[in-house]
């Protein structure tokens, strides 16, 4: 890989990384549970933030501090795949957030006017914004081009698994049979698989 090309892909990585972080900070600030909503977060937001950032920091640190575990053959292709997953994950996350509109919040809860959204990506999966986030995180870790870095993906996966359980319980309680039927008809994260 030529030096100018290496600089270009590093710029692409840090640009996507900054867009991801700034976007998540904006969501944290703007998309809170409104007054009068029934909270049901059970600490999942805090656990999710910790699991994601521990996974990302450990993964990137492994890429820097454990060069012996670095991918030697196909590292550029792996890095490019990571960039593509970051971009695709960001696009999916923001599309899912846009489809939910004002119903999107960063903390789990329900409102009396809460309705089921089953359009856009929600036709196929119940948690497309989480799928997008996981794709973004996986992309970040692939860009470390280090096998140990990929192990760190287990932390965000565990955080999202807990968050999904908490959210589905709250929505089943808040929306009742309508949400339970929706759960039977759609996958959690990956259409037709998971």
Brief digest:
This protein is mainly alpha-helical. It has helices at residues 3-30, 44-65, 75-100, 128-143, 147-151, 154-175, 177-185, and strands at 38-39, 109-110.
Query: So what's the CATH class?
Result: Mainly Alpha
Number of strands: 2
Computed Rg? 18 Å
Number of domains: 1
Query: What is the CATH architecture annotation?
Result: Up-down Bundle
What is the average per-residue confidence, as pLDDT, rounded to a whole number? 92
- For the record, give the distance between the C-alpha atoms at the N and C termini, rounded to a whole number: 37 Å
- Across the major sheet, the strand order is 1-2
The helix fraction, in percent, is 55-70%
Count of DSSP H/I helices: 7
| Oligomer class | single chain
Would you list the SSEs in sequence order as H and E? HEHHEHHHH
What's the overall geometry?
Answer: elongated
Question: SSE layout and pairings?
Answer:
Blueprint: H1 3-30, E1 38-39, H2 44-65, H3 75-100, E2 109-110, H4 128-143, H5 147-151, H6 154-175, H7 177-185
Antiparallel strand pairs: 1-2
Helix pairs in contact: 1-3, 2-6, 3-4
Plain-language structure description:
The chain has seven helices and two strands, in the order αβααβαααα. The protein has a two-stranded antiparallel sheet with strand order 1-2. By secondary structure, it is mainly alpha-helical. α1 (3-30) packs parallel to α3, α2 packs antiparallel against α6 and α3 (75-100) packs antiparallel against α4. The protein has helices at residues 3-30, 44-65, 75-100, 128-143, 147-151, 154-175, 177-185, and strands spanning 38-39, 109-110. The mean pLDDT is 92. The chain has a single domain (3-30, 42-185), classed as Four Helix Bundle (Hemerythrin (Met), subunit A). It is elongated and about 55 Å long.
């Amino acid at each position: 890989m030529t030096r100018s090309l290496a600089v270009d892909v590093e710029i692409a990585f840090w640009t996507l990384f900054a867009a991801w972080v700034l976007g998540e900070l904006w969501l944290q600030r703007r998309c809170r549970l409104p007054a009068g909503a029934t909270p049901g977060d059970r600490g999942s937001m805090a656990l999710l933030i910790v699991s994601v950032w521990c996974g990302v920091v450990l993964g990137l640190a492994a890429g820097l501090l454990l060069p012996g575990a670095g991918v030697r053959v196909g590292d550029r292709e792996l890095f490019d795949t990571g960039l593509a997953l970051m971009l695709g994950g960001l696009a999916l996350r923001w599309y899912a957030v846009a489809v939910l509109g004002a119903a999107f919040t960063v903390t789990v809860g329900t409102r009396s006017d809460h309705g089921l959204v089953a359009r856009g990506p929600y036709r196929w999966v119940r948690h497309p914004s989480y799928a997008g986030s996981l794709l973004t995180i996986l992309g970040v870790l692939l860009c470390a081009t280090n096998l140990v870095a990929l192990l760190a993906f287990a932390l965000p996966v565990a955080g999202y698994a807990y968050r999904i359980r908490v959210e589905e319980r709250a929505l089943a309680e808040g929306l009742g049979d309508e949400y339970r039927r929706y759960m039977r008809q759609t996958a959690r994260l990956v259409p037709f698989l998971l």
